[in-house]
């Protein structure tokens, strides 16, 4: 997967920013915004569904107009810090931008692949360049219909038709449920007993993609995959932590793919003893990914400035090896893509504006050959834990391997 042509969505979004497609006021410090302030801002522009547990402090904000996206969350109530990165300037502008509308958010629904002969971001025979790159409307500008809603969950549905670079037509239905998890569920999900001193918010999205057409999806015509991306507020000391399956490269392949935007300096990417440490300081544009052979069903990050431990869990079907490849070129191996990714935002070139700063944690479903009426489900779960330094660090060691 080593190629200078590997350019994923944020590279494109940042490059577009350079030519004036997206305006970002970096003077607005999103790290200072509370959950209430973020919800209040969003409600001036779009409908917001706030999910909570009644008297509980954990809350999340969901926007139907942004494909049922979880925009942000908090562990401590409305007046506590908000965790999701939000593109205030783009939302405030109140207009659609060309190529992509990068609104932000902690959990957004996307589809892959982005590049290659089965891309859904390029039309047939178009060159793989920024001028011709276009995020499909069904994952960018089209709102999703609210099907049902309670105080702690909301379900969306959207039906659409999409055509890939090879001119294969897909008729799809997206069913997406966003559910705020109860504190009582966390011990079982994490496999540990959480101290009552820890503040927590946890939610999951159940994302179902169904083939509602009459024709089966095949590798010959190209496949789709569910791709969930979360954008979070950074700090200069935030570190992404990705456990990996240890073993010989001859059997399992490289431990980490780190060539998306060129070489990652050694001080920003450390790989040892079953754990990858990747700098998420919002200062250097870089991205990493793990293959199905190397990835586990969990990744996370640690911010010592807030004593905040963030975990992402997702369902990784046993034995699945086909994942879409998003390289911007005609590919030799279109189903040898990554399962999990992390992106650190930074200037696209010295002195240039950047989109954030922020960092990302991502997961993808396998690329499955679906017959008419068949579905694939991808679950992506986000957990934020905040508390005293020693307690949070011990949890990080237990759940991810280490956090220093």
* Separate helix tally: 6
Overall tally of domains: 1
Unreliable spans are: 1-30
| Assembly annotation | single chain
Radius of gyration: 20 Å
CATH architecture: Distorted Sandwich
Please report the total strand number as a whole number: 18
Summarize the helix and strand pattern as letters: HHEEEHEEEEHEEEHEEEEEEEEH
Strand content: 25-35%
Broad CATH class: Mainly Beta
What are the salient characteristics of this protein?
5-stranded antiparallel beta sheet, 6 helices, Beta-galactosidase, Chain A, domain 5, single chain, 404 residues, mainly beta, 10-stranded antiparallel beta sheet, disordered N terminus
Give the arrangement of secondary structure elements.
Blueprint (H helix, E strand, L loop, with lengths): L8 H10 L16 H9 L5 E4 L6 E5 L5 E6 L13 H6 L14 E5 L32 E5 L3 E11 L5 E12 L2 H8 L8 E13 L13 E8 L6 E5 L5 H4 L16 E4 L2 E5 L6 E5 L7 E6 L4 E7 L25 E5 L14 E6 L10 E12 L2 H12 L4
